[in-house]
Design brief:
This protein has 226 residues and is of the alpha/beta class. It has 9 helices and 8 strands. The protein has helices at residues 23-36, 44-47, 54-63, 72-84, 97-106, 119-128, 152-161, 175-183, 214-221, and strands at residues 10-13, 20-21, 92-93, 111-114, 138-139, 168-172, 187-191, 209-211. Helix 1 (23-36) packs across helix 3 (54-63) and helix 1 packs across helix 4.
Length: 226
């Protein structure tokens, strides 16, 4: 088999629902809020799609409230506290992701992480998962003044990695990822195996490619592979 070759200079990924299946621990932190209030925990499969929108989405799913609700800030802070204490209990890389990263590392194809998760959680989690040590850049929702769907986090990641956005790909499981990637001038991949919590299906996001599983990413990134 010939050495893998990619037409791209760099590959950038969302974290939750794209590289890592973090929903088990996010849902656990959410259900802990319900239990503390003598309310019935929500089924995992019900809350899983809400993980795509982080605390805002999970609190909407669990309590039916939005950020303008008077109880939102207190619930969000308690959620953050719950999650911070149990970042990596049942979370793991999606099946096939480690192999994909190994293949990119083997041919020195740089890759980075761009997430709306705050650095408070991103850095320790990616350290524990062995990702931040390998990535050329790790950009969180509060690394720049903006978060996705604004393109600045993606452009910032490309700048600090010295990678041309127009020769790169951004992969994510939310429409905000596709919007941000396109605005940054990157090719985009909708990770349809992820949480995909928005109302529109991945096919309607306008992405250049759709990955139904992580192995599809291998074919997209290395289109010449045997």
């Amino acid at each position: 088999m010939s050495k893998l070759f990619s037409p791209y200079e760099g590959i950038f990924f969302d974290l939750d629902g794209t590289l890592a299946d973090t929903a088990p621990d996010l849902v656990a932190a959410t259900n802990k809020l319900l239990v503390a209030r003598n309310l019935t925990p929500k089924p995992y499969e019900f809350l899983r799609p809400y993980a795509s929108a982080g605390a805002r989405g999970l609190l909407e799913g669990a309590f039916g409230i939005s950020p303008d609700h008077e109880d939102f800030v207190a619930l969000r802070d308690e959620f953050f506290s719950n999650y911070e204490k149990a970042l990596l209990v049942d979370s793991k890389l999606f099946d096939g992701i480690d192999h994909l990263l190994d293949q990119m590392d083997a041919v020195s194809l740089p890759w980075g992480i761009i997430t709306n998760k705050s650095e408070r959680f991103t850095n320790p989690l990616t350290d524990l998962m062995g990702l931040r040590q390998r990535a050329v850049s790790t950009v969180s929702g509060d690394t720049t003044p903006y978060s996705k769907p604004h393109p600045e986090p993606i452009l910032h990641a490309a700048r600090i990695s010295n990678i041309d956005p127009s020769k790169s790909i951004y992969v994510g499981d939310d429409i905000r990822d596709v919007l941000a990637g396109k605005a940054a001038g990157m090719k985009t991949v909708a990770a349809a195996y992820g949480y995909c919590g928005c109302k529109e299906p991945p096919e309607a996001w306008g992405a250049d490619y759709i990955a139904n599983n992580p192995l599809d990413l291998l074919q997209i990134i290395f289109p010449n592979r045997d």
